[in-house]
Amino acid sequence: MSNKFPPLLNRQLMVAKTIPTFQKAKDEAFVELKAFVRNEVQQNGRSAHRIMMSKAILLPALYGCAYTALMLWGKNDWVYYGAYLSMGLLLVFIFLNLIHDAVHGCLFRQKWLNHLYVHFFDFMGANSYVWKLRHTRLHHNFANVMGWDSDIEQSPLARIFPHEVPVNKHRYQHIYLPLLYPLYLANWLLVRDFKDYFNKKKIIWKIADLPRLEYVKLFLFKAIFLTYVLIVPWLVLKVSFWQVLGGFCVLLFSASIFSLMVLLSPHANTYAQFPLPNEQQQMDHTWFMHQLLTTNDVSHHNWFVRYFMGSFNFHVIHHLFPNLCHVHYPRVTAELCRLAQQHNLPYRSHPLLHTLKAHYLLLKHNGTQENIFEEVM
């Protein structure tokens, strides 16, 4: 399927509200993998639950300890900036391990408790309501589909999807975008959330009308976050506003760089495909095959990645079974690898540095008129 479209069709695709559909063919490997997952949950569900409960207590407690250290001993510069750095890293750890699983309903066994816990994300500056819609209903169903994958909904500065007609500035995006990446979280917390609520051209408006109460919560939680990370330290520690702003930047920059290693490596690279639906909004493959074509794993993993990074490197399984607790990912991925060899499936796993390099190459190649994906899509 060719991915070259005139600008007019690009604009039509971006505003189309007909949800894409996938082929209904039965994937035997997926049926076998589902059976393995059911058995895995039955055998190891209790131990996985204990691990998750330990994280649900430990990680927020560490976040609170970092903030307490800031308030008590923040007049020491090492403690001051170290506390903000720790809060930035812990924000990522809490998101990957707890918020992410809670939004998929697999952190706690009680549905209401998952729903309540997701609001911890609001206290850390992000809007949980709109992110849940973006992530669970758009990104997970339509990964790498332009006009539907809100997780990589691009700004005018970026040309991530190869189908979009490039402009002159895109030829330099492989230079200026990496320089802007440390601002990723600042953009998310202070700009993107508000755009989702007030710009009805955003993808999120294709699937939902945002309730008025959520507008109140948007401003309320943003105010709470900015109060405890900016205003309270400024008043309690009697430091200059510029020093407080510097600590806030350390928090945002550290969280941005750490989180982008996770967010960029599974989808936005030259290994992944960016398929489009046809004029009837039908995809050429099944949902199962779509996840394999658009997602890759990161091959390097260890205890730190599994416990503190939420096993993010086993991303294919997460897309195939989004309601599965991440503690199960390593064992289920081993079975997926076996089935991939047996059924000749396009499962991919690459080292982290390779995926980040492939992301850089994607930016560089997509900055030109040439469509490097035309021969393989």
Describe this structure in words.
The structure is a single chain. With 377 residues, the protein is mainly alpha-helical. The protein has one domain. The protein contains 15 helices and 4 strands. The strands form 2 sheets. Strands 1-2 form a two-stranded parallel sheet. A two-stranded parallel ribbon has the order 3-4. Helix 2 (28-73) runs antiparallel to helix 3, helix 3 (77-103) packs antiparallel against helix 4 (111-117) and helix 3 (77-103) packs across helix 10.
Brief write-up:
The protein has 377 residues and is mainly alpha-helical. It is 60% helix and 3% strand.
Task: Give me some keywords for this one.
377 residues, mainly alpha, two-stranded parallel ribbon, 4 strands, globular, disordered N terminus, disordered C terminus
Question: Numbering strands along the chain, what is their spatial order in the largest sheet?
Answer: 1-2
How widely separated are the two ends? 5 Å
Computed Rg: 21 Å
- How many domain modules? 1
Order of helices and strands: HEHHHHHHHHHEHEHHHEH
What secondary-structure arrangement, pairings included, does this model have?
Layout (H helix, E strand, L loop, with lengths): L6 H9 L5 E3 L4 H46 L3 H27 L7 H7 L2 H4 L4 H12 L33 H8 L3 H15 L13 H26 L3 H24 L17 E5 H8 L2 E2 L4 H6 L6 H6 L8 H15 L5 E2 L1 H15 L11
Parallel strand pairs: 1-2, 3-4
Helix pairs in contact: 2-3, 2-14, 3-4, 3-10, 7-15, 9-10
